[in-house]
Input
Amino acid sequence: MSAITPDTTPERRLKRASRLSGDGTFKALTAVCAGSVLLILAGMLVETTNEAWPAFRKEGIDFVLANDWVPSAGRYGGAAFIYGTLVTSVIAIVLAVPMAVLIALFLTDVAPRRLRLPLTYVVDLLAAVPSVVYGLWGVIVLVPFLTDHVWQPMADHLGFIPLFSDFLSGRNYATAGVILAVMILPIISAVSREVFLTVPEGDRQGALALGATRWEMLRHAVLYRSRPGIAGAVMLGFGRAVGETIAVAYLIGGKADISVHLFHPGWSIASVIASQFNEAASNPDFRSALIALGVVLFVITLLINVAARFIISRTSRYT
Amino acid sequence: MIAGGNMRRRRRIDRLMTFVMWGALFVAVVPLVLILAQVVIKGIGQLSWDFLTQPEPFNQLEHSGGFGAGIRGTIKVVFIGSVMAIPLGILAAVYLTEYGRTSAFARLVRFLTDVMTGIPSIFVGIFIYTLIVLHTGSFSTWAGGLALGVLMLPIVVRTSEEILRLVPPDLREASFALGAPRWKTVTRVTLPAALPGLTTGCLLAVARAAGETAPLLLTAFGNQLMVPWSKFNGPESTLTYQIYQNSNSPFLAAQERAWTGALVLVFGILMLSVAARTIALRKSIGRR
Output
């Protein structure tokens, strides 16, 4: 072995052959394409922060802590939007997560084998409906229905709980939360399903062999093992809910207010940007403030997504 | 074994939970069915050739005209987005599967691509607004297309990577054994073998882009007039934008147009999704 000179090892020859064949150029081309993702992300951060800077500098920490949004007077305190974003997203998570996890379990372990694939497609179709259609449907159908049959009765009977008291408008935090729940359900369900499929068949069979019923097997073997993966799925869903724009713009009511009452109108970061950008385009201060709100939204979703991906990548098979 | 009341209780809970799981699925499917039904019922009445090809009437009260401008605009911006994102995304995926694999750079790209799929679409709109619209001084079809391209890119990269990973290593090895360099193996063997799967991934990305509204508000903006096919440097309507605008109008005729627009949009996106699935299904059958 040691007698062979390095020049004739297969690796060396391959390397030379690939140099001659132009493989290096192709590799460089694909690497540049892969690098474009980094470039775009970096460009996003720099460009938007640059435009947002005047607003951040002028308002300081009040930009996110003060509830004082009067563009006509040059006052930009966006706390109400951050509050509205978080409240609607939390409502969405509370409603969607139990449903999504049960549906995922159903699709991996319970549904008749033949129906699993078609039913999975149907759930995925929920993600294919565009957000503007959710918004349109929400305003015409969901708002009157929820107002008459759910929110009003809840306000009447559960009004002693501050969250549910004082019904003001059908377009409110709660309605926006409901539509967000429908919209994020497919992603939470899809990621949970992937996680459940990684639980070894042996764990399932083992639990059943010990005399567990199917539900006990699902609970103690499948769900127990999947906790980190579900946490990741929930955070991905939360990230989606936080960034959703148009459907929320239709349904949240459009009022820069902070209220504990879920049946009051509010506003979210993404929807206020969509609603006010037209007026702001000709006023540099206002425009800068809306872009700054976008940067705040970006930072929030970035933190959520990085955390979610970190959790998921530690539990999944590859990456 | 003591199969007393305890066992009966456990069985009962088991049956109850099975029932609850069926119920959860049912509750999730209800909005889907309701939305599809409503869109068809409210939208089908005004659907006509004119609706697909004519611009909105200047008088909002009129029942004539349609979303021709927006449909054309959507096709244009999605086309620009695809031309940008599909080649870039597939080549990036080739790098990840064929060259980078587990290198630190490849892992970083993979991670950031995943993170990028979660960036709110309105923020992508803001980015293109600051990058293009502020510098050129005008909303434009270009800007809208680029925004969609940025949104599509991570989807194309990740789905293509999954698909390329599924190409059997034997195929690549056979090609190497014949003396083909890696780039030739990729372009002549790996990519053609993965073509159906890649098409599926790209169609899903196109479907997602066609349904976007938020980023287009800040980039393509909107336009009451039909913009010629060859013009890309001015404001342009898209289907989603026209639905959004018309549904917020107090006039009944405009609201009716919004529902018909929604019907066209949902139908188009569903067709793309079904086409994507059918291609994916074909492939798995052919393999067997």
Observations:
- Residues 207 and 269 of chain B are 5 Å apart (CA to CA).
- The longest helix of chain B spans residues 5-43.
- Residues 71-238 of chain B form a domain with the MetI-like fold fold (CATH 1.10.3720.10).
